[in-house]
Amino acid sequence: RLATLAVWISCLIYAFGFAPGVPLGASGEGSDADIELLKALIASPFDGAINPIFVFVFNSLGIIPALHASLLLPGSSNQRPLPALPFVLSSFFAGFFALGPYLGLR
To answer: Is 102 exposed, middle or buried (CB count within 10 Å of its CB: 0-12, 13-18, 19+)?
Structure first.
């Protein structure tokens, strides 16, 4: 449990303190390069202009939380002190940032 909480806190510190790029609050949006990359990825994801590993990771952002849900929800009725469903559903939007507290506290 402590290791999971330590990893979660480390991810929070890195994401909000040391991650490269322009913070969303600084200019109202992300950097122009990030926006152009996402536009190109959405327009034509498999044309080869974008690194295939990035395309794989981007496309699996919805699959990974579904796998977590299939592993966590069947046995969650016996878990205490928190229900798994709110954390699993929020992990579709926030990833490990939403799932980390549940994994650390169960």
So the answer is: buried
